What does this fold into?
Amino acid sequence: MDNGDRPDRHTEPYEHDGSAAASDPAVADTLAYPISPDYVKSWTPVRALCELIANALDEDRDAKVGWANGILTITDDGPGIPEEGMILGHSTKTMQQIGQFGEGKKLACLVLARSPEIGAVRCETVGYGFTPTVERRRLLEGLIPSLSGQGAEVLVYHLRANDRTRGTAFTVACAQELAEEAIGRFRALSEPGYHPPTNPGTCVLTDTPGRVWIGGVLVSTMPGLLGSYDLPLDDKGLQNRDRTVIEAGALRDAVRAILAASDDQAVVDRFATHVLAGGKLREPEQFFPAVTAARPRAAWRAWARAHLPANAFYAGTRQEEAVLDLQDMDYTPVTASGLPGYQEQTLMALLGVEVARVRQQRHYERNHDKTTWVPDRDLTTAERDLLSAARALVDRVIGPFALDRVRVYGNSEESPCADGFYTPGTGDVAVHRDVLADRHRTLSVLFHEAAHRVRHRGGGRFIPSTDYSDRSRGFEHMLTEFGGLLLGLLADLADGGALPEPVAPPTPGNRRRVRLTAADDPAVPVSRRELAHLLTDRLPHALTAGGFTDEHDMVTSTAVRPVYWSLLTRPRPAGFRRQQGVSTAWDYDKVALLAEAVGVHPPVAWLASNLCEGPLHGRRRDQWGQPGRWAKKVRDLITRACADLEAIGGAYAAHVPALRALADGTTPAPTGDDSWQAPARTLITLERQRLHLDGDSQSH
It folds into this structure.
């Protein structure tokens, strides 16, 4: 290359192939880049130093960076800078490295060479070294006309050969302040043991808030944020060639994803304390609607339990009367006045704080019974005998699952115009007292309500269904089934047969029957029944250990919807489906939170509740229990449960092959047969032994 006004320097280009210039340390050469010194005007010397440090860390996570006696030294133990590394735009960086565009080192050398704040810059790498300068040159030996006639200022490397066989070392003469500012932008240099975060990143609460790192490299600052954020290296795509985050929407989404996925109590405390004190949030940190995962929601609920009063509420718009009423009853208002209305509403849902009107309504609902029940002791002897005989007959004809608890009422706002009603939430059947004056009416009402219950909850050969209400096709079908069953029994009696013997004899003396719990219902799969007993037997210890006032308080602390706890402790038959809402406890994370609150291993709880659904899920009803692989969703969840069992080890891990054989369809799983649920039942037995529940009087 032409050396312009410096004819004393070599004119041949520097070679890397063993030429004289490369092999003789005394021989020097120059390499000129046709890059104007005005390129990347926005780059500061600190930005350039950061690029050199980033390159060193990409090659060697233990690279040494330090300043002493006016010199910043950056040393790594990498393979050195090859010929391709001198080409602008060439890069072999992966997404797990800081670099990206193949321009950092070249542009850093340009910026440092032109900056009056920087002294001599030297690089020593494998086989050669160079010093970057900015000089006026004529390109291609002056063959190209020059506008000024004097050539143009370009970046020039003064090259020299050396004997180095490993690593690269940069030395830069600069002020201590510049060096410390550049070093301070790298978390890997200031925090021992630092590792770049995985998706979605981490929220950093130490030091000055408002910083944004990518892979531990400071790229931007945003005043007014409550925290700082370290994005994963995969988010390098958010940067331009100046290494700054420039797309506001992408940064907002990245910050919200970090906060929404965080279950760190320190992060929750920072934001909850701020907004409940009336503080505002900048747009990137308005993340409350994005908190949907189970464990982050549980973390917010745990914070509320520790920091908010039990009788807390928040005031919505136009609820002044409800607010005054609650305050008169010693309820405590909670506000987040710095947030927009919809943000406040979402925050309060995370914290488990109800709006004033709902809180007031729930208070009155808990203290007001809409049905006037008639105690068993107030019934006449004739009424008690008739009710007992009628329900015993229904149990013998239809089955022990047909009726659970039967209650008598005198007046009801729930169903004021009927002789009886069925309560889906409890499985109870209610009979009006006037009905007990007539045997025919009593049998008719019990027969009718039993059809509702069996269609809803199933039992025996009957599959549960959500189509159980009056004037529905499903209920009509159930009445038809019952009619056929009764006619069959009449035919048997005409041929000299007899009614089936009752499963359990009537209770002597006081014939009032206590409600049959779902954990004892023969229509419920045995693994679900045993899980329900495990959880309820363990519950008293969990309440004491966790400092909970009652069962509801414990479930609320997990931020999991109460329906999940109900499905675990008051189980339904396999195949039960609601028309709306949750029918099975499929969500592994939510089941895990509830299980951990009680002290039970999460995979045991999930398998005991859901293994019976394996041959049913994702199939038509006429294909339930048929051979073949289970649905992919079930197989994936069972794989996760098996991985957790293997992590527990011991006798728990021994059941993994049997569980996988069921999911793969190797082991048959017919409906109506609970024997194939043996792996789940054995795991429950192991839990009872571990938790010392086998000696309890409630052990099952």
Residues 1-27, 92-102, 505-512, 696-700 have pLDDT under 50 and may be disordered.
